[in-house]
Amino acid sequence: QVQLVESGGGLVQAGGSLRLSCAASIRTFSNYAMGWFRQAPGKEREFVAAIRWTAGGTYYANSGKGRFTISRDNAKNTVYLQMNSLKPEDTAVYYCAARIWGPGYVPNTEKWATNFASWGQGTQVTVSS
Fold it and tell me: Dihedral, CA atoms, 28, 36, 58, 99, nearest 10 degrees?
C-alpha cells in the first residue's frame, strides 16, 4: 500500500519561495513516477509537475514553467517541489501523487490525473499579495 505525506506548505508573500516535500511509504520508490497537483477553492484539481523514476524525465504545467522545479531523492523516498516567484494565483492545496510507470510509458498529457493512482492528503499553500 502506498502512503504519501506532504509537508512544507504555508503562508508566503508574493515573490517568495516554498519547497514542498512528499514522503512516500513505498518499498520500491525508485520504480514510481511522482507528481504534484493542486486544487484552488472552487476549481478542479490541476497538474503542476511530474517526474519519472529515471533522471531527466520531468514534466511541467505551463503555469509553473520557469518557477517550479520538481526533483526526487530515491534514497529518502521523497519528492520535492521547489516553488519560486510565487503568485497569489498559486494559492491552493497541493497534492502528491504516485504510480509505477514502465520504461516506455507515455503519460496522458490531456488528463494528467489518470497517470497516477495514489494520492496524499495535501498541504495548503497560501500566497498573499
Answer: 30
Separation CA 116–CA 18 (nearest Å): 24
Contact 28, 101 (CB under 8 A): no
d(C-alpha 64, C-alpha 69), whole Å: 8
Q: What would the pLDDT profile of 62-76 be if each residue is shown by its tens digit?
A: 999 999 999 999 889
H or E segment to which residue 78 belongs: strand 78-83
Query: In terms of Cα–Cα distance, which of 68, 65, 2 is closest to 33?
Result: 2
Q: How many residues does the chain have?
A: 129
Per-residue pLDDT for 56 more than 70?
no
From the centroid of its chain, how far is CA 21? 9
99-112 confidence digits (pLDDT tens): 998 878 899 999 99
Query: 3-state class of 83 per DSSP?
Result: strand
Cα–Cα–Cα angle for 46, 87, 67, rounded to 5 degrees: 75
The C-alpha cell 510565487 sits at 86
Q: How far apart are the first and last CA of the chain?
A: 40
